[in-house]
Each structure stands twice: as C-alpha cells, then as structure tokens.
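User: quick one, fold this
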Amino acid sequence: MRFYVIISLLCCCFYSCISIEGITSDYDKLNEEQKSRIIKYDGSIEELSVDGNVYVIKTGQVRDFISNHNNVIIYDYTPWCKGDNCVSPIMLEKICNDNGFKLLLIADSFVEIFKTKSQQSPMLFIDYDVYNTKKRNKYIRLFFDELTQTSEKQRGCGMFYVFEKGTFKGAKNNISEVFSGI
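Assistant:
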C-alpha cells in the first residue's frame, strides 16, 4: 500500500510540472494584458489593420472578404508551429502579393500568438464559442467545414485554403503546392 502512495505522489509531482499545449485554444494561459487584446469583432475584415490585437471572427465575415476578392488564401495559422510546412506570416504575405492573392491569417491557438510578426494582415482567430467547444481540433474542423461547405474527408487536411472568385478550390499542406499550378 505504501508503494502505491509513493508512486501516486511522484506522479502528481511529475504531472504538475508539465504543461500540455494545443489541445484547447489555450486562452487561459494568456495574461490579463494579452486577454485585453483579444477582441470579438463583428465588422468587416476589410476595415481591420495590423495593430497588435487579435480579432475573433466568424465564417460569415470571412465569406464576405472572400467574395470581394478574386484570389484568397486562408492560412490556418498555428503560431507555435515549427514544422517544415509552417510559414512565417511575413514571408507568406510577400508570396501572396507576388502572385496576386489576398491573405487571411486565421490563428487556431493563442500559444505564442503575440510573438507573431505581420506587416499587412491583421491577426484573426476562430470564434470557437459558435461551435460550443474549446477543443482546438474540433473548432478548426467545424470552422472550415462551414467555410468551405465541405467535410474534412472531402477536402482533406490542410493549412492553406485556396479560394478563387469566392469558390473553394482546395486545401493544401505546403505553400509550394498552392502556387505550383500558377
């Protein structure tokens, strides 16, 4: 019995030192100053500027933006991502500008969101309250299901969502795939 008590105490100590990120939005990990810079926004995305705030938006606002531009790329942006397919927003802005695309940065996690550097694109965030969940994978899937009017199975997983003349053209995991046919 004593052995189980010691193991239980060691496990509690070990797990109290671990911080798991990315399962939820991680809003609770922001400090009060950062939380004050998270703004629920109902207006036109066109009216936003790069001002250090993060704007929580709904799919209707994104659809309005897409319908006003011929070529749009939505970057499902995970600020803490360090993988090969993750792209710096500044580099992506340049690539999009050079190829005649408008860019929307839509973050899916608050972890490291205020470290993000962008020159032209306001930082947007999925309004997960609409989907009654804080589980990151679920609200991302539901947001893009609604936006693209497809299921994840139909469109595949991707970080870059391409729209031409208001129509969803596909989801790509690598930015070079997006521009390979252009």
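User: anything notable?
Assistant: The two ends are 68 Å apart (CA to CA).
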